[in-house]
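tool=predict chain=A
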Amino acid sequence: MVSTTSPVLEETFQNVRKAAEASLRMQQEMLGHWASIWPGLPKPQSAWVDQLQKFRKEMAAAIAETARKHREVLDRQYQAALESLDAALNVADASNAEEFRRRSEQFCRKAIDCVRETSETQIREFQEMLAKWTEVLAKAGP
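tool=predict ok
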């Protein structure tokens, strides 16, 4: 699998994301506290707000997981495409008819296997995504 970012950058982005989330949580808590002590403002319905925030977090996590898996699938498909291109170019290097036939057959089998594997992976990922989103929505339901 070919990675487009280095582990150092990935870790840096993760740390920045965690810091931003912590800052946002602190700001929300401060605003909630200030709003609760301010005279004349209604107190928020914390159960409803908490449930909404929990749903938002779970949905965001599900979407992030789906995007990560989709990127991994695309990386594998891209690698398979590069390997197929290399195999196709090797077919032309055959020195006789028998070797050309053998290389062509190998290339066709590999191309068919690649299409099958890609289709199966896409269907499996779609089913997993649908199950995860259904689970999140069921938890948030009434």
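DSSP finds three helices and no strands in the chain. The radius of gyration is 25 Å.
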